[in-house]
Task: inverse folding
């Protein structure tokens, strides 16, 4: 909206959108799809690694295949997509790599060991890559790490913190997370945590002794916040098995 109260009219743009289906957990699929993109669209200057899955099982109840799937999609895929598109960015000294991780890549909770490990891995990969680009003096290639709190997409439906705290930390709306992430990307911000309270939690986890962190988690109800989510996933699985006669 302009200063006189009238809405600004955006210039008409003939945009063309290309979509591709790719299993990012399989490196051959990533490399083949990347080659198609280069041939049909052109070189990629902005890479956003956003794919994510969760098994929803306690460690000892989780099939090995689901653990491997979580690691491949949430962490290993970042290696394949970056290896596919970074060479041209380095050649041009121009580009932007965005890693959509999670607050659970900065601090963990119980019951989702595979998810936390994969997100910690994604954060570590992103930080190391950022240092490598700086060391190579490729200042034209920017990096942004996005670490949101629980997002209301249904992925972690049932996750609950302490009911007295919940009004102050409700699940985030996807639109809000996208808006904050886009603002960080457009301003070349190296990292964005949403909400800002996550910075404080990360800082406290870094300086407090482990037992103090446990007490903080228990006060917030974050120590077992995933247990209702896991119970719901288990119930849904049992219902499907019963329905399918397995």
Result:
């Amino acid at each position: 909206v302009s200063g006189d109260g009238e809405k600004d009219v955006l210039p008409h743009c003939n945009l063309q959108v290309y979509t591709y289906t790719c299993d990012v957990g399989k490196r051959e699929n990533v490399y083949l799809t990347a080659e198609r993109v280069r041939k049909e669209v052109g070189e990629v200057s902005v890479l956003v690694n956003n794919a994510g899955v969760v098994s929803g099982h306690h460690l000892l109840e989780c099939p090995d295949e689901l653990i491997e799937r979580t690691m491949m999609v949430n962490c290993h895929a970042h290696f394949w997509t970056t290896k596919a598109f970074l060479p041209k960015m380095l050649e041009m000294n121009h580009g932007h790599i965005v890693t959509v991780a999670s607050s659970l890549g900065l601090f963990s909770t119980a019951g989702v060991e595979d998810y936390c490990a994969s997100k910690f891995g994604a954060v570590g990969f992103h930080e190391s890559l950022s240092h490598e680009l700086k060391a190579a003096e490729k200042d034209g290639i920017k990096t942004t790490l996005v670490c949101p709190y629980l997002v209301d997409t249904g992925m972690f439906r049932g996750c609950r913190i302490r009911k007295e705290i919940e009004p102050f930390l409700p699940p985030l709306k996807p639109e809000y997370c996208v808006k904050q992430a886009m603002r960080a990307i457009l301003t070349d911000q190296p990292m964005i945590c949403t909400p800002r309270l996550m910075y404080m939690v990360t800082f406290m986890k870094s300086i407090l002794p482990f037992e103090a962190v446990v007490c903080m988690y228990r006060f917030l109800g974050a120590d077992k916040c995933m247990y209702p989510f896991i119970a719901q996933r288990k119930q849904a699985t049992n219902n499907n098995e019963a329905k399918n006669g397995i």
